Amino acid sequence: MKAALSGLLFSRKMLWVAFLMLRLWGCHGDFTYSIPEEMKPGAVVGNIARDLGLDNGGLSLRSARIELKGSRKRYCDLNLKTGELMIAEKIDREEMCGSKTCSLKYELVMESPLELHEIILQIQDINDNSPHFPSDEIKLSIPESAVKGARFSLDMAKDSDVGRNRVQSYTLGRNDHFSISVHSNADGVKYSELVLDKELDREEQQELSLLLTAVDGGSPQRSGSATIHVTVLDANDNRPVFSQPVYKVSLSEDSPVSTLVLTVSAVDADEGANGEVTYAFSLVSDKAARLFTIDNVNGEIKVAGPVDYEDETDYEITVQAKDGVGLASSAKVIIDVTDVNDNAPVIYVKSLKNPVPENAAVGTEVGIINVQDDDSEGNYQMSCTIQQNVPFKLISSIKNYYSLVTTGELDREEIADYNITIIATDGGSPPLSSSKIIKLSVSDVNDNPPVFEEQSYSAYVSENNKPGSSVCSVTARDPDWRQNGTVFYSLLPSEVNGVPLSSYLSINGDTGMIHAVRAFDYEQFRSFKVQVVARDNGSPPLSSNVTVSVFITDENDNSPQILYPTPEGNSFMTEMVPKAALSGSLLSKVIAVDADSGQNAWLSYQIVKSTDPGLFTIGVHSGEIRAQRDISESDSMKQNLVISVKDNGQPSLSTTCAVYLLISDNLAEVPELKDMSYEENNSKLTSYLIIALVSVSTFFLTFIILIIAVRLCHRRKPRLLFDGAVAIPSAYLPPNYADVDGTGTLRSTYNYDAYMTTGSRTSDFKFVQSYNDNTLSAGNTLQKHPLDNSDCLDFTDAGSKFSTLVNVF
Ligand SMILES: *[C@@H]1O[C@H](CO)[C@@H](O)[C@H](O)[C@H]1NC(C)=O
Ligand SMILES: *[C@@H]1O[C@H](CO)[C@@H](O)[C@H](O)[C@H]1NC(C)=O
Ligand SMILES: *[C@@H]1O[C@H](CO)[C@@H](O)[C@H](O)[C@H]1NC(C)=O
């Protein structure tokens, strides 16, 4: 095929040569040849000799030579033999002339004669160069925002050939976005522009590769190509897009701070800063803004404060996502707060009757309780209870309201204060409860009378007490409060022995101390009773009373009193003693009484002086004077004895008396009796005795008159009056005795006791012969008897009677 091609080329050269020779022939010496470039060395351009009309040897004869002007290269040689101009070295038109018209000018010099011809060798272009781009790859960066029709100039392709062999056109490989537009500049050079036919989207396609081909107009045609590498540049044409338009989330109200609530996320398709999303709350209530925070980078919404269902049950927040350039979009976040049983019920005391009077009826409403719980539904169902051991209960009235009522009697004196614990429990799981203590006081009502500590009181006061001395103290207690329990004492007015009680006793109203107002006399009365009233200060007041028995105890304030022998100093009171009286025979008896009682009235007798000591003895307790030995003739006829009678009190009191004894069988023998009495040196003693007896008698007399008057006055009935004379002989001679019984009634017509031993319980008048069983047993009774007779005064009792039997003589 190559051989065929070169054959073709050769035949074309032949045609050209013929054509040029014909043309040049007429130019008179100057020869112009036109040859294509790139001919092989040795190729014949033309036959100069023939064109000059010379013979085959003619050129060599004339020493013809050719010279190329201005170049050291020859490119062609002249064959002198044949006269042919031949290619000596390959001619590259592009190298030699570039884009200009290319020709070589030779001078043909011949000698003999010198002849100069110009030979012009015109070099014709052949399409031996392909178009080519400066680089195989054309890089283009086109923003995606570029509009349709935008043009982007492209590098030109180069082709060293000229004319039609230059680049004639550009083509672009198939694609969706671009087309090519080809232009020629002033020099006729073709260039191309890339035209955007359809907008780019970086997010769809980031890069494109296009094949750009340049073709020339030669024949055969040549082409060159390059790859256009289009990088689509990002434009901030996308907003951030949230993954959901609305986010809904539930949040338990007890969530602690920094609990993650949810994460919102928005995506921006753009690149770089255009695609960097930041988050923020855009529409948010102040409250929600305090409770939640959003992380502006990762979109995490977290709890920032105490979320309380009872405060707000849901929050709606608009969240905005913004890219770096400022395109934004928003989404809604709804946070539902769920209730947790975090609120214990609260107990309110709406009203309270405090204090409650202790006499409040069972079922009295004392207070109203209200229970509230902020939680919802199940967490809200409540129950309310009270502790068991109090006399109160709760009655559920209206919803969540309870009445506190009494279930039993209240007694302030037993329990004055109650701490009532109310417990409210809700229905949550776990249930919460709370409690409240209500302090309730019970107020006093005067429901307790004063109560004496003892059922009755007895007081013992010795007679001759000092006025104002305390007798006894009574105490009454009242458990009520303050004035309802303040006790005042008083004596119930009455009379004692016809005299108002107040002149005997007084009471300290505050302390209950009973004082004597005057001195008491045992011999006057021995006991009496008073009623003490204790009254509180309530309104109305309550009172109670108690009996105080006052017993007056005896003191030895009365001396023994001699009844016989009469202390009048009567010298006739002389005892006759038979001369033949034997040892031990009863000769006489001293009779004495004592107004006191008991030991104080227990008398003892003693001979303190005698004419003939040893002749007589006296019974210590009986007062009987007996002969100690047989009386003899030698004994003096007149015998005087001084006898002391002493009671047993502390200190004891005593009285003395004189006894005159006459030892004689015949009264006629009695000489000067008078002398006898005066003979004694005891006239002083006698006068004392007389004074004593008279005064005692007077006292008793007065006293008896008084008593009888009282009795009469009381009974309005005539009483026996006794013979008031202190006539001892007539008194002791009758062999009867008087008895005053417990009722004070005289049983006998004659009463010694009444005036002699008032108040005596015992008498020591004891005569051996005249003893009577009754009087003995009664006389020995020394004990006190309870005073139970209706009279205020007790003169005698059964055991106090004494008998006086004077029949000794
Ligand atoms: C009630 O409670 C108080 C203390 O709050 C206590 O001093 C008092 O003794 C209590 N009373 C009763 C009856 O429990
Ligand atoms: C005493 O009792 C009366 C009712 O009997 C009552 O009204 C009053 O308040 C009580 N006084 C005190 C100090 O409690
Ligand atoms: C003394 O108390 C008794 C009951 O204890 C009562 O019957 C009597 O009336 C009271 N007397 C006075 C004077 O209050």
Automatic annotation (TrEMBL):
<keyword id="KW-0812">Transmembrane</keyword>
<dbReference type="GO" id="GO:0005886">
    <property type="term" value="C:plasma membrane"/>
</dbReference>
<keyword id="KW-0106">Calcium</keyword>
<keyword id="KW-0677">Repeat</keyword>
<dbReference type="GO" id="GO:0007155">
    <property type="term" value="P:cell adhesion"/>
</dbReference>
<dbReference type="InterPro" id="IPR032455">
    <property type="entry name" value="Cadherin_C"/>
</dbReference>
<feature type="domain" description="Cadherin">
    <location>
        <begin position="243"/>
        <end position="347"/>
    </location>
</feature>
<feature type="domain" description="Cadherin">
    <location>
        <begin position="356"/>
        <end position="452"/>
    </location>
</feature>
<feature type="transmembrane region" description="Helical">
    <location>
        <begin position="688"/>
        <end position="710"/>
    </location>
</feature>
<protein>
    <recommendedName>
        <fullName>Cadherin domain-containing protein</fullName>
    </recommendedName>
</protein>
<feature type="domain" description="Cadherin">
    <location>
        <begin position="78"/>
        <end position="133"/>
    </location>
</feature>
<dbReference type="InterPro" id="IPR002126">
    <property type="entry name" value="Cadherin-like_dom"/>
</dbReference>
<dbReference type="Pfam" id="PF08266">
    <property type="entry name" value="Cadherin_2"/>
</dbReference>
<dbReference type="GO" id="GO:0009653">
    <property type="term" value="P:anatomical structure morphogenesis"/>
</dbReference>
<keyword id="KW-1133">Transmembrane helix</keyword>
<feature type="domain" description="Cadherin">
    <location>
        <begin position="134"/>
        <end position="242"/>
    </location>
</feature>
<dbReference type="Pfam" id="PF00028">
    <property type="entry name" value="Cadherin"/>
</dbReference>
<dbReference type="Pfam" id="PF16492">
    <property type="entry name" value="Cadherin_C_2"/>
</dbReference>
<dbReference type="InterPro" id="IPR050174">
    <property type="entry name" value="Protocadherin/Cadherin-CA"/>
</dbReference>
<keyword id="KW-1003">Cell membrane</keyword>
<dbReference type="GO" id="GO:0005509">
    <property type="term" value="F:calcium ion binding"/>
</dbReference>
<dbReference type="InterPro" id="IPR020894">
    <property type="entry name" value="Cadherin_CS"/>
</dbReference>
<keyword id="KW-0472">Membrane</keyword>
<keyword id="KW-0325">Glycoprotein</keyword>
<keyword id="KW-0732">Signal</keyword>
<comment type="function">
    <text>Potential calcium-dependent cell-adhesion protein. May be involved in the establishment and maintenance of specific neuronal connections in the brain.</text>
</comment>
<dbReference type="InterPro" id="IPR015919">
    <property type="entry name" value="Cadherin-like_sf"/>
</dbReference>
<feature type="domain" description="Cadherin">
    <location>
        <begin position="577"/>
        <end position="673"/>
    </location>
</feature>
<feature type="domain" description="Cadherin">
    <location>
        <begin position="453"/>
        <end position="562"/>
    </location>
</feature>
<dbReference type="InterPro" id="IPR013164">
    <property type="entry name" value="Cadherin_N"/>
</dbReference>
<feature type="signal peptide">
    <location>
        <begin position="1"/>
        <end position="29"/>
    </location>
</feature>
<keyword id="KW-0130">Cell adhesion</keyword>
